[in-house]
């Protein structure tokens, strides 16, 4: 018995000494993994065709094999994973997957098999980045040259190359450089954003998100025109993503002409896009293109042609070759190369394709006037987007020397007029609500649903029959909630970005929600919560505010509060403090009734009412 007990003790000792690493090991969590060779399942044309997604213990293979429970086992080297589908779209019979992830969980390797369908795929996939990610969209604009003109174009190669274009060695194409381009709408699953003026964009993605994204071209968000893979085209913020390189191709033997065909164009049956101003040797003369206003630039109107032959290279005569050469370096060409009107150039073909990803059909070329919504190319100013709130104006272009953001202090229920300005390339302003603490609403003329969400675009086109009458300024209103939200901080706000061509301005509405004051009635009575602050009951109409209006002091600048001083004034009241009158929401100044009419109580009685936030007006000295 003693011997038996000794054996038991020894065995218990062995169990107690099992190393910690022999215990149950952790497994990899949620993640999406992208295959370099797609589709994963033959015939799968979905946006998920290139990946495997592990979410909540379930595995999805491409868009063909839906989520099924996965067997996960932690090992010393990482995680083993196995899954079985009874059926997958387009595949006969069952499909199985067996694979492994390293301890870093950054790759997924294994085999996807379907015995009956004779499916056998080796999987070697990379994990998609999660959290804040960045990418860049670059575009090359290329003009195809007909066979009959290539020798002549090669003879002019040096002059054309000097304009920043590149003539192919065989003369078949004339291309601009690959440049980051603003205004492209990028969507990955339910997340969307717009590329900045340099082509870069930032998104926040979940760990088990989509493996492929979509692109909408600037100014035309009806349908995506290209797709890209999250790996390798997105990188963690601060990293170096592989550019999403697009090419816009056009058949440009006749330049960008519309309604005019130089000799030889009819023979080659090439449609044309722009109206020429006469012989190439004559300068293109038109009224000034745009004028400067309060918010930015405005098209002058009265234009009669697009400037597509003012680039300086003007060979004698007018034929397909001279028109093509004269186009290089012209106003239209420069705007096209900068991403402002490159989608007009395609006269026979207009393709968009990515280095890695799936082509979704491209888009058709758009005539100049339609592309710019009623304006000629020289009437637009790339990135000209602005806003006006009360008397304060902002604009995204540094050359206009205006601020690019503003903040408006508001009170519950206030309706604020907002003017959104756009004389940018495509006549569309993208709207993104970046902060939604208050839950206020933006409404008004031209506000449409778009890829960024409901009410996410403003069109600046008023249709007159089939033509567009351009409306550079759109009148909107922002309406504050009737009360501060229950969980609002003292500086809660709603913030909007208004964007065009990758440039943007920011407008914030901040509500001064006072700290919550709680009053308890008795030991077991009801508890009430109120938010209140000081306001003045106006004795006379002040600006647009009628007599009797209770105006929160937080909206006032240049004022001070005087205590009651009977018999002249029996209550606390508001006077001006600086000698120049008070300002209300940035407007004014409005003179003190004491200075203009000798009224001893100034602007009116100061009271405390619900809904007003704290103010900083001092006591009058």
Describe, in plain words, how this protein is organized in 3D.
9% of the residues lie in helices and 38% in strands. The model is unreliable at 1-22, 253-283, 345-357 and 516-530 (pLDDT under 50). It is mostly beta strands and 621 residues long. β5 and β6 (78-85) form a beta hairpin. Among the domains are: 31-127; 131-249, no CATH class; 385-511, Immunoglobulin-like (Sandwich), CATH 2.60.40; 524-610, no CATH class. It contains eight helices and 45 strands. It has a nine-stranded antiparallel β-sheet, with no helix packed on it. The longest helix has 15 residues, at 2-16.
Strand order of the largest sheet: 4-3-2-1-9-8-7-6-5
Mean pLDDT: 81
Proportion in β-strands: 35-45%
Structural class: mainly beta
Percent of residues in helices: under 10%
Radius of gyration: 33 Å
The count of β-strands is 45
Low-confidence stretches: 1-22, 253-283, 345-357, 516-530
Shape: flat
Provide the CATH topology of the domain at 385-511. Immunoglobulin-like
């Amino acid at each position: 018995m003693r011997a038996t007990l000794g054996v038991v003790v020894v065995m218990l000792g062995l169990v107690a000494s099992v190393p910690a690493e022999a215990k149950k090991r952790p497994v990899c969590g949620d993640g999406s993994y992208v295959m370099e060779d797609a589709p994963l399942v033959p015939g799968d044309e979905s946006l998920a065709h290139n990946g495997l997604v592990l979410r909540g213990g379930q595995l999805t293979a491409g868009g063909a094999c839906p989520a099924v429970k996965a067997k996960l086992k932690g090992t010393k080297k990482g995680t083993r994973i196995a899954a079985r589908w009874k059926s997958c779209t387009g595949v006969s019979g069952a499909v199985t997957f067996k694979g492994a992830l390293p301890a870093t969980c950054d790759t997924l390797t294994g085999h996807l098999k379907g015995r009956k369908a004779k499916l056998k795929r080796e999987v070697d996939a990379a994990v998609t980045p999660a959290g804040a990610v960045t990418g860049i969209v670059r575009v090359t604009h290329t003009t195809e040259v007909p066979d009959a003109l290539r020798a002549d174009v090669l003879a002019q190669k040096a002059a054309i190359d000097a304009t920043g274009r590149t003539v192919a060695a065989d003369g078949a194409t004339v291309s601009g450089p690959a440049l980051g381009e603003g205004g492209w709408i990028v969507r990955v699953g339910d997340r969307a954003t717009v590329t900045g003026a340099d082509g870069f964009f930032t998104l926040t993605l979940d760990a088990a998100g989509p493996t492929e994204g979509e692109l909408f071209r600037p100014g035309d968000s009806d349908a995506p025109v290209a797709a890209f893979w999250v790996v390798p085209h997105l990188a963690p913020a601060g990293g170096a993503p592989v550019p999403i390189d697009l090419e816009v191709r056009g058949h440009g033997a006749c330049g960008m002409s519309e309604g005019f065909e130089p000799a030889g164009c009819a023979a080659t049956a090439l449609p044309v896009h722009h109206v020429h101003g006469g012989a190439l040797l004559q300068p293109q003369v038109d009224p000034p293109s745009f004028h400067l206003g309060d918010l930015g630039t405005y098209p002058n109107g009265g234009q009669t042609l697009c400037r597509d032959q003012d680039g300086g290279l003007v060979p004698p005569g007018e034929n397909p070759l001279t028109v093509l050469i004269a186009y290089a370096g012209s106003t239209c060409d420069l705007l096209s190369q900068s991403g402002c009107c490159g989608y007009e150039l395609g006269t026979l073909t207009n393709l968009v394709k990515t280095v890695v990803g799936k082509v979704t059909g491209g888009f058709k070329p758009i005539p100049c006037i339609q592309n710019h919504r009623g304006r000629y190319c020289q009437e637009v100013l790339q990135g000209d987007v602005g806003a006006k709130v009360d008397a304060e104006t902002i604009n995204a272009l540094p050359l206009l020397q205006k601020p690019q953001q503003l903040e408006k202090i508001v009170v519950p229920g206030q309706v604020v007029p907002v003017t959104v300005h756009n004389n940018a390339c495509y006549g569309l302003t993208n709207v993104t609500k970046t902060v939604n603490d208050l839950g206020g609403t933006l409404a008004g003329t031209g506000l449409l649903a778009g890829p960024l969400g409901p009410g996410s675009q403003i069109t600046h086109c008023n249709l007159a029959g089939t033509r567009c009458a351009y409306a550079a300024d759109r009148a909107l209103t922002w309406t504050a909630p009737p009360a501060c939200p229950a969980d609002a901080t003292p500086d809660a706000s709603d913030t909007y970005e208004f964007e065009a061509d990758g440039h943007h301005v920011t407008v914030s509405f901040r509500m001064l929600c006072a700290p919550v004051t709680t009053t308890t009635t008795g030991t077991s009575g009801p508890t009430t919560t109120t938010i209140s602050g000081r306001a003045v009951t106006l004795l006379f109409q002040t600006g647009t505010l009628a007599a009797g209006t209770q105006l929160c002091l937080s909206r006032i600048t240049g004022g001070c509060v005087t205590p009651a001083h009977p018999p002249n004034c029996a209550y606390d009241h508001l006077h001006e403090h600086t000698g120049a009158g008070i300002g209300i929401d940035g407007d004014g100044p409005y003179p003190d009734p004491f200075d203009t009419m000798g009224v001893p109580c100034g602007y009116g009685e100061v009271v405390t009412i619900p809904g007003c936030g704290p103010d900083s007006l001092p006591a009058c000295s």
